[in-house]
Amino acid sequence: MKKKVEITDTTLCCSVCGGLNVERKVWADANADEVLEDVSNNDEDTWCRDCEANTGLMFKTEWDSQKRKGVVMNNLLTNRQWNIEGTWYAPEEHLKRYKSVIKTDYITMSSSAGDWEGMFVQKLNGWYYFIPFSQENNYPRSGFTLYTGEVFTRTSVISEEVWEEVIKDFIEIYY
Fold first, then answer.
1. Is the bond into 91 cis (omega within 30 degrees of 0)?
2. Which of 1-5, 96-100, 170-174 bottoms out in mean pLDDT, i.e. has the lowest?
3. pLDDT at 149 exceeding the cut of 70
């Protein structure tokens, strides 16, 4: 059974979904079950159980205030970087774990090292945000670095035709 969380000025939530089912890395005394030091330095050190991803944390009161104002920029997965372990498709799978990400696809896959680029759609507050991403092989270390860019465009509807038109426009501008 989930513990009821009382919302205060210092209550933290997921910066993407606003949920309270969040975690962060700490050093703890294994025998006393006491937190000694908070070691979370970035989004990689936090976890949202609802999004099942490293999302970053923010104060719940701030998140609620932004939601009331219709501000979603802190919730968009823009200008982020993650180190991802796994196969060539692990970075795309990482994006798909966010509940707000409704579509992902690669645009270029010509590098045999897996240095590929793509686009994903994130739905927030009734808008569909098209955001480019790229992945870079971390050789000789394992895994990939996943980067997300700025919002390319946003639409109020999504369909296969809209997706294809946005990708076509993106390719014409950047390739």
1. no
2. 1-5
3. yes
* Model confidence band, residue 72 (pLDDT cutoffs 50, 70, 90): low
What are the DSSP calls for the chain, one per residue? -PPPPPP-TT-EEETTT--S-EEE-EEEETTTTEEEEE---SGGGEEETTTTB---EEEHHHHHHHHHHT--GGGS--S-EEEE-SSTTHHHHHHHTSTTEEEEEEEE---TT---EEEEEEEETTEEEEEEEEEEE-TTSSSEEEEE----EEES---HHHHHHHHHHHHHHH-
**Which amino acid makes up residue 93?**
E
Domains located in the chain, CATH noted: 1-74 (no CATH), 76-175 (3.30.310)
> Whole-model pTM?
0.63
- pLDDT tens-digit readout, 77-89: 988 999 999 999 9
